[in-house]
Amino acid sequence: MKRIFSGVKPTGHLTLGNYIGAVRKWVEEDQHRADALFCVVDLHALTVDHDPARLRRLSRQAASLLLAAGLDPERCVLFVQSHVDEHARLSYLLECTATDGEMRRMVQYKEKAARERERGGSVRLSLLTYPVLMAADILAYGTDEVPVGDDQTQHVELTRDLAVRFNQRYGHTFTVPRATHPAVGARVMNLQDPSVKMGKSDDTGPGIVYLLDEPDTVRRKVMRAVTDSGRDVVYDREGRPGLANLLDVLAVSTGAGDPAELAAGYSSYGALKRDVADAVVELLRPVRERHAELVADPAYVDGVLRAGAERARALARPVVDRAYRAVGL
Ligand code: ADP
């Protein structure tokens, strides 16, 4: 059976981008076809300015949302990264495998560091080394596949490079993983600025649909989405990115498949936006409802995370021990 690993960062509330680009596929496909682990990667949330109480709250909320979205603890392992020491242990060995040059080339680092400096802030060293920790998350489990949105492709490529380099230097230790993406919706764009992705860590609220947004809020955000001055509805990701984004979201939310075919059924932006709003409201409704039930049952969520961490630890420990032996420790 294939081993799958993926995660979400508790740096903010989960978004429609996280859901469409990653979580939906984990729920509908990955947990059924593979030996899958899903992780709330809380150590990664320390790479930027953070508030301890908020981080704790968001980690818990992320875990509850993943359960609410349909991850089934009988079918997959759900856990919190910091509950399993092996991630940090392995990360150090991989820091001794990666080079500073390849870390500085990471696009996300360059963008996030530039944003941080623009705000007059300083950049945590961990923002630079973040992809190494992500490589450790993946390699500690002998992962074959990493189901992620498009934005993580470069990080998974780095993970592959590190695995190959380590294996060449010290003997075969790690499985070399590959990224997988959903056919449609691998990059959901911000509704107010379709040139940037809908990311929970950005502060452009009106362009981001959160999984826990009330139906009225979802409708308002979708109806105000930036499109362009054209009138006809066509699917053109380069020339009409705002429109293409809405069509992608509609295709995924309704299970219609091909966004280009959907375009043919619309003669106005208004009608399209109304259908997108309805479809997203319906897509998120069961997740919000189940989340409310889980909030009322914290002991259940705690139990799932405790059992998940135990199972994860048992899988990671032998791999990480082997890596330590391989380097001569
Ligand atoms: P964020 O950028 O929202 O903080 P994370 O780093 O926690 O996201 O990523 C969780 C998963 O969601 C990853 O697989 C990532 O590729 C995916 N993802 C994040 N934003 C989007 C988006 N706008 N469109 C598609 N997938 C996304």
Précis, in short:
Pfam families: tRNA-synt_1b. The chain is built from twelve helices and five strands.
Question: How would you state the average pLDDT, rounded?
Answer: 95
State the end-to-end CA separation.
31 Å
* Main β-sheet description: 3 strands, parallel
Query: From the coordinates shown, what is the CATH architecture of the largest domain?
Result: 3-Layer(aba) Sandwich
- Name the ligand types: adenosine-5'-diphosphate
Structural class: mainly alpha
Mind telling me the C-alpha Rg? Answer: 20 Å
Strand order of the largest sheet: 1-2-3
Question: How many domain modules?
Answer: 2
Helical coverage, percent range: 40-55%
Using the coordinates shown, work out and report the CATH topology of the largest domain: Rossmann fold
Low-confidence stretches: none
CATH superfamily of the largest domain: HUPs
Shape: globular
Strand content bin: 5-15%
Helix and strand succession?
EHEHEHHHHEHEHHHHH
CATH class of the largest domain: Alpha Beta
How many individual β-strands?
Answer: 5
Number of helical elements: 12
